[in-house]
Structures are given as C-alpha cells and as structure tokens.
Design a protein that fits this description.
Layout: E1 3-9, E2 15-21, H1 25-34, E3 38-44, H2 62-77, H3 82-92, H4 96-110, H5 115-120, H6 128-140, H7 143-199, H8 206-220, H9 222-240, H10 243-255, H11 259-280, H12 285-295, H13 299-313, H14 319-323, H15 330-342, H16 345-402
Antiparallel strand pairs: 1-2, 1-3
Helix pairs in contact: 2-3, 2-7, 3-4, 6-7, 7-8, 7-11, 7-16, 8-16, 9-10, 10-11, 11-12, 11-16, 12-13, 15-16
Length: 404
C-alpha cells in the first residue's frame, strides 16, 4: 500500500505531521477524523517525507519505560483520559520507535481495545511483564497502582543495568588503550628502527626479531588479522545461538573470577524484584514465574526458573527448588520460604531485591577495584616488552663496542 504524509490539527489546535499507510487519500482522511484530527493536507509521501526508522538495536531502555509509566500515571491522576494521555505522550516521547508504538496503542483503544491488549500488540516495545500488570490493574480497578509499581520496577532495572555497564566500561577502555599502544608501536615505532637494526653488525636478540616480524605482519598482512577477527566473532555469535553455546557462556559468566559473584547477585536481584512486582499485581505464582524466567539474561537462570515453575505446578513450594543447588545464594531460598510460611511472599521478595541491589553495587565497586591495578600492570608489561625489544639491540651494540 502507498504511504501518505499529512498535516492536521488536533482538538487542542496543535499542528501534527506524520505518515499513514493506506489504499487511498479518502482512507487517510477517514483515519485522521477517527483520531479527532482535522486534516489540512494529505499527499503521497516521497523520499524526503517518508518516515525512516533510524533506531539502533531495536530495544527500548528500562529508563524509557519508567518515564512513560510516571508520566502516564501523572496524567491519569490529573483527570486526563487514557486516549488523551497516550496522545500527549506520543508527541513528547523522544524515542521514535516508542512514540510510534504509543500512537498505535492509542488508535487500538479508540477501536474499543483495552489498554493491556493495545500494549500487547507492540511486544518489542512494551514487555510482557508490563502487559500482564496492566491487565491485572484493569481487572482490579487499580491501574494507577500498577503503573506506579512498574515505574519503580523499571527505574531500578535501569539503575542495575547502569551499574553493570559501569563495571564493564573501565576494563574495556583500558583494553582499547592497550591495543592502541601495541598497534602504534608495531606500525610506527618499530619500522623506524628496522633499518638501524639491519645495519648493526651483530645478532639481534630474539625479542627484537619477534617484534620486527610482528610489525611486518601487521603492516603488510593486516587484512588477515581482520579476516580472523571477523571469523572468530561470527563463530562466537553462531555458537551463542545454540543451546550448548548458551550453557557455556552462562557457565563462564557464573564461574569467572571477580565477575562471577557479580553475575550471581545481579540474577538474584532481577529475580526478586520481577517476581515481587508480578505477585504484588495479583498474578498467579506459576504465571509470574514464567514471566520472570523470560526476563533473565543468563541462560542457566532462565532454565532454573522454568524448572522451578514446573515444580510449583506439581505442588512443590518455590523455596525448595531455589534451595536445591547453588544457583541462587542461600538467602534467596530461605527468605522465599519465610514469605511462603507467613503469607508475605511479595514483601519478602521486595526486601530481597533491595538487599541485592546494594550487593550488586558493592560487587561492582569490588570488580573495579580489582581490575584497575591488574589492567594497569598488563598495560605496563606490554609497553615494557615493546620498549625492551627496541632497546635490546642498542645494549648489544654498546657491549660490542666496549669489548673492542
């Protein structure tokens, strides 16, 4: 179907522009009037007026969802209708993909759909946990409470992800600096000394021969390095898509020195917060466990919660599979058991989430404190090795002169 660009005025007198895919211009006019817009101009879209999706990655950040929930609940509490609230959020949301989904949800509600069903039509923007909680809020008449709870959930998720990124950013930056120093030495410094090395009437040390050979390889056969790197990256990505690959990388993430503890604690935090939020909304524990499993980024924890769900279906308390192995810290299983016995599972899980949020932050600081000196030592070692390769022939020459 052709795409049409339009200019229209909403009921507040504000001009709106956009694109609509339709069979004819008459259909576009009908759609605009159905959305309470007064058409000013409708014409076929061209290369300059077509909507172009320039979003990268296709994922919506938890921070975007948190802001959406807070703004939506503020408008609803102020007496704004759901349709009008979504319309205003569509206009002021900077993320183009999310704004388009909000507009689509608004149109679905205009056709008679519930808010939860409207959001469910955009699963790449609104996650399953959000759809389920909105549905529970609609059923209980506590939509505001559901959005307030989701806002806090996504805000804490955003904070946790920011902490995790922070722990990875520093070592990545230092590794890039080390790589840059190595490339600079091999492509600019070593070649300048090569002619002088060749003119020396003495046997070059092995370390210098190795560096000269490495420099020649990098300069003249750099494309082979690029091909190897591309092939390795492609192979790793393909392996990660297999079940064996997911198990391997998930196991490495848990067992890796320094980072393993951070992985375990972040999984405990994510599990506790997500399940607490869903149980609070009134979802059955079995359904809540299924959704929580889908939010786990580590494959082993995803399978662990799926197996725990099967155990709960058979009538086993949730605390038993959580305590059956060392996947989660023992405190998770024990606090869950207390929550089950006292009938306050949601409250216990919420306290667990707060506790492990702090633990993740402390673990991140520990990781940074341990990595900083290690990477600096490695970087210094590389630089010393390269400088040694340059200076070794000179020392050999001076020793030869002294012996004459």
């Amino acid at each position: 179907m052709p795409e049409y660009s339009y200019r229209a005025i909403d009921k507040y007198g504000k001009e709106k522009r956009g694109n609509i895919t339709a069979d004819t211009e008459d259909v576009v006019f009908s759609k605009l009037r159905a959305d309470n817009l007064t058409p000013l101009e409708v014409k076929k879209a061209n290369i300059f007026t077509k909507d172009v999706d320039i979003s990268i990655g296709g994922s919506i950040k938890p921070r975007d969802l948190s802001v959406f929930c807070r703004q939506f609940i503020s408008m609803i509490n102020a007496g704004v209708t759901i349709v009008d609230a979504l319309g205003m959020l569509e206009e002021q949301t900077e993320n183009k993909k999310m704004a388009k989904a909000i507009g689509g949800a608004k149109n679905e509600i205009g056709k008679g759909e519930t808010l939860s069903n409207a959001l469910a039509k955009y699963p790449d923007v609104f996650p399953d946990i959000m759809v389920k909680m909105v549905a529970a809020g609609e059923a209980s008449g506590k939509l505001e409470v559901a959005f307030e709870r989701m806002s806090g959930h996504f805000e804490k998720s955003a904070k946790l992800k920011a902490i995790m990124k922070k722990s990875a950013m520093y070592p990545i930056m230092l590794a890039l600096v080390a790589l840059g120093v190595i490339v600079l030495m091999l492509t600019f410094v070593i070649p300048k000394y090569t002619e002088m090395f060749e003119s020396l009437d003495t046997e070059l040390p092995g370390i210098t021969k190795a560096m000269v050979a490495a420099s020649d390889f990098v300069i003249h056969k750099w494309y082979l390095i690029v091909l190897v790197v591309v092939a390795v990256v492609a192979a790793v990505k393909a392996f990660k898509k297999t079940e064996q690959g997911q198990v391997f990388f998930a196991t490495v993430a848990r067992k890796m020195p320094i980072f393993g503890n951070l992985t375990i604690k972040s999984a405990a935090s994510n599990f506790s917060r997500t399940l607490s939020t869903l149980v609070y909304s009134g979802l059955p524990l079995i359904e809540a466990l299924g959704i929580t499993a889908g939010t786990m980024t580590n494959y082993l924890y995803k399978k662990k919660l799926e197996n725990a769900k099967d155990e709960v279906v058979r009538g086993v308390p949730l605390s038993e599979p959580l305590l059956a192995d060392d996947m989660f810290p023992p405190m998770v299983g024990h606090m869950t058991r207390i929550g089950e016995e006292t009938g306050e599972l949601e409250d216990m899980l919420s306290k667990l989430a707060d506790y492990y949020d702090e633990e993740v932050e402390m673990a991140t600081q520990t990781v940074l404190a341990a990595l900083e000196p290690m990477i600096i030592v490695v970087l210094a070692g590389v630089v010393v090795l390269l400088i040694g390769a340059v200076m070794a022939p000179m020392f050999a020459m001076y020793n030869g002169l002294d012996s004459m």
